[in-house]
Amino acid sequence: MAIVKSKILVELSENYPNFYKKDLEKFLDIFLYEIINSLKKGNRVELRDFGMWECRTQAKRTSRNPKTGEKIETPQKKYIHFKMAKELFNFINETKKI
């Protein structure tokens, strides 16, 4: 089951009933925007005990269309690399409780 932004907002509003839902939504929007903006600038984003995101560059290369076999020049592009923290790894693998 995937988690979506609306479910995160429901969880936040249940855990923090003193905050308005619109304020929590604004907080979540700002939080996600800052992560995206930092990655776009080429900065690394690290959340302790969770993981780290960084923007990496894939070099330009010659690829092939699998249908026709035609060679295509694929331009340089950026992608996001995520590395989970040891604490998250241990929690997922049930070797440590949070």
Using only C-alpha atoms, the radius of gyration works out to 19 Å
- Overall mean pLDDT stands at 93
Flag low-confidence runs.
none
Structural class: alpha+beta
Strand content: 25-35%
Q: What separation lies between the terminal Cα atoms?
A: 21 Å
Number of strands: 5
Question: Into which percent range does the helicity of residues fall?
Answer: 25-40%
Order of helices and strands: HHEEEEEH
Q: Summarize the main sheet.
A: 3 strands, antiparallel
What is the count of helical runs? 3
Identify the overall geometry.
elongated
Provide the spatial order of strands within the biggest beta sheet.
1-2-5
What does this structure look like?
The chain is of the alpha+beta class and 98 residues long. Helices cover 40% and strands 28% of the residues. The chain has a 3-stranded antiparallel sheet. Helix 1 packs across helix 2 (21-41). The protein is elongated, with a radius of gyration of 19 Å. The protein starts with a helix and ends in a 6-residue tail after the last helix.
Could you give a quick summary of the protein structure above?
The chain is of the alpha+beta class and 98 residues long. Helix content is 40%, strand content 28%. The strands form two sheets. It has a three-stranded antiparallel sheet with strand order 1-2-5. Strands 3-4 form a two-stranded antiparallel ribbon.
